[in-house]
Amino acid sequence: xxxxxxxxxxxxxxxxxxxxxxxxxxxxxxxxxxxxxxxxxxxxxxxxxxxxxxxxxxxxxxxxxxxxxxxxxxxxxxxxxxxxxxxxxxxxxxxxxxxxxxxxxxxxxxxxxxxxxxxxxxxxxxxxxxxxxxxxxxxxxxxxxxxxxxxxxxxxxxxxxxxxxxxxxxxxxxxxxxxxxxxxx
Length: 185
What we know:
Elements: H1 4-9, E1 29-32, E2 37-41, E3 43-50, E4 56-72, E5 76-81, E6 86-91, E7 97-102, E8 107-113, E9 118-123, E10 128-133, E11 138-144, E12 149-154, E13 159-164, E14 169-174, E15 179-184
Antiparallel strand pairs: 1-2, 2-3, 3-4, 4-5, 5-6, 6-7, 8-9, 9-10, 10-11, 12-13, 13-14, 14-15
């Protein structure tokens, strides 16, 4: 149990406003400090929201069962598309497609690691992780990671972490050597 002083110091969160967007489901939302936009995967589109004005662009870019818009250097996004088993590079201002790479089956989460210059796409249905060189806009490796991959994170120290929805594990991946280091229930 928390003591009274700990409770007194806990931050207080409250809703301070609402921004209306188009109806329908959505998956991951990401914030890009460079563009000051929030990008939201909405299945057939990527929605952009100006964080300062609240202005909504309902369809910045088209997609096919999009799951994760990943902000990248150079004013780009990497968008995972479960309908085509691809990740598409998109101009973050205009939404124009710049290229694509193949991924494992059912790409879901994506994340960028500034230290390595790689993005990682987690295949929800295939259980593998695709390593993407964002400068070259090319997949450079695909490794088996788990069974049903969901969200991913990087630690800035050479490790990728991803949860496996089916096995209830967190999996640690060595980025440089492209291998699984451990599994944690």
